Amino acid sequence: MKLIAAMSGGVDSAVAAARAVEAGHEVIGVHLALAANPQKYRSGARGCCTIEDSHDARRAADVIGIPFYIWDMAEEFHDGVVEDFLAEYSAGRTPNPCLRCNEKIKFAAVLDRARAMGYDGVVTGHYARTQIGPDGKTLHRAVDHSKDQSYVLSVLTIEQINGAIFPLGDTTKVDIRAEAERRGLAVAQKPDSHDICFVPSGDNAGWLRDRLGSEVGPIVDQDGNKIGEHKGAYTYTIGQRKGLGLTVPTADGSPRFVLKIEPVTNTVVVGAREDLAITTMRGERPVWCGPAVGSEVKSGFVQIRAHGAALPCTYYCDGALLVATLEEPLLGLATGQAMVIYDGDRVVGSATVCETQ
User: Fold this and answer.
1) Which of 153, 145, 125, 94 is nearest to 348 (CA)?
2) Lowest mean pLDDT among 97-101, 130-134, 258-262
3) CA nearest 80: which of 42, 48, 47, 109?
4) Closest CA to 198 of 313, 306, 46
5) Confidence of residue 168 (pLDDT cuts 50, 70, 90)
6) HSE-up of residue 149 (Cα within 13 Å, Cβ side)
7) Closest to 97 measured CA to CA, from 56, 143, 47, 55
8) Of 49, 104, 129, 327, which one's alpha carbon is 20 to 30 angstroms from that of 201?
9) In what helix (H) or strand (E) does residue 231 lie, and over which residues does it extend?
10) Taking a C-beta distance cutoff of 8 angstroms, is the pair 47, 97 a contact?
11) pLDDT value at 38 more than 80
12) Could you confirm whether 313 is annotated as catalytic?
């Protein structure tokens, strides 16, 4: 097959590209330039789309022996990921930009361009697996559950899964680094990327204030009594306890937690920890990574954080909404997060949480 290897500049994508070549495929390496002015995005080893990363990706491609190109995806990234991030926080939700980047950039824009150029698919260094079965090609967890990235890939459509190749899904991270050493790849011990790549300082709240303003608003208890002030409701998230700056303590000294964010009135509502408990979540814009879910109630697992546990649940579709009910209450689920349904290690699909109960 003719494949495009998306090379971030890290060890995982470099080994994935090398394995694709070793498997006999015709491969070119591509690094995505996600900013028109790279200096405004993060520099250093903790990002995933920096100038240093592009140099590392080029050197890895040279070692592997494949052609290498840099694709300008700055406009697509800004419109599909950065603007979405701002809009979600403005609406009082807590988004996951890595999911949007996978959906809009790595497996939409890149795959579309690859196919337009006559290539069959895209190779990435994500830790996930695909399998061919009676329902076609399906998405599954990686063997190394500590590195599993099926959660952030759950936004892929069936068509995108058909065009995706994940060569690392059957290998642990330790073994990948050892393999990179054997292959002579300089990125073998490069630290993994962390944080949001387009927030240069890592200070999400400060970054948001610079773009959305810092209008002072009230922090209130559940009875509507003002007990503090904030500088932008969008800089808070459901379940937050630290950094609230409350001026009125509780009678027994117990902490308060953010229960609700009301962007229209620029108000943050706080309360007791037990008031965070939810048992049912509803998600909009569902995406199926296999057969679509209908109104029949099924048993499975739901995961609501990239590195969180998958929790036992029942799930079904109520019209355009995916509904999951937990066996045990969950504390502090923010709207805007992804709810990902699993059947064992298979990804059933995902949706964006729009309501909790």
Assistant:
1) 153
2) 97-101
3) 109
4) 46
5) very high
6) 19
7) 47
8) 104
9) strand 226-231
10) no
11) no
12) no
DSSP-derived secondary structure letter, 246: B
Query: 142 phi and psi, to 5 degrees?
Result: -75, 160
Rounded CA separation 335/357 (Å): 11
Query: How much is the pTM?
Result: 0.91
**Tokens representing 62?**
């040279």
The values of phi and psi at residue 229, to 5°, are -135, 155
What does the alpha-carbon distance between residue 108 and residue 195 come to, in Å, rounded to a whole number?
A: 22
Fill in the DSSP letter of residue 242. T
Tell me how far apart the alpha carbons of residues 292 and 192 are, in angstroms, rounded to a whole number.
34
Known active-site residue 98: no
CA dihedral 317, 321, 326, 332 (to 10 degrees): 170
List of long-range contacts for 44-49, beta carbons under 8 Å, 24+ apart: 45/190, 45/191, 45/193, 46/191, 46/193, 46/194, 46/195, 46/202, 47/193, 47/195, 47/197, 48/8, 48/9, 48/10, 48/193, 48/197, 49/8, 49/197
Using CA atoms, how far residue 33 sits from 20, 61, 69, 143, 164, in Å, is: 23, 16, 10, 31, 20
- Active-site residue (options: 48, 197, 313, 317): 197
Overall size of the chain counted in residues: 357
CA within 13 Å, CB half, 355 = 10
Q: How many CA atoms lie within 13 A of 39 on its CB side?
A: 0
Contact (CB, 8 A) for 110 and 4: yes
Contact 18, 185 (CB under 8 A): yes
CA atoms within 13 A on the CB side of 279: 3
Exactly one of 101, 289, 313, 317 is catalytic; which is it?
A: 101
| Least confident residue range of 12-21, 71-80, 344-353 | 71-80
Q: Which residues are within 8 A (CB) of 246 and not within 5 positions of it... i.e. 6 or more apart?
A: 219, 227, 228, 256, 270
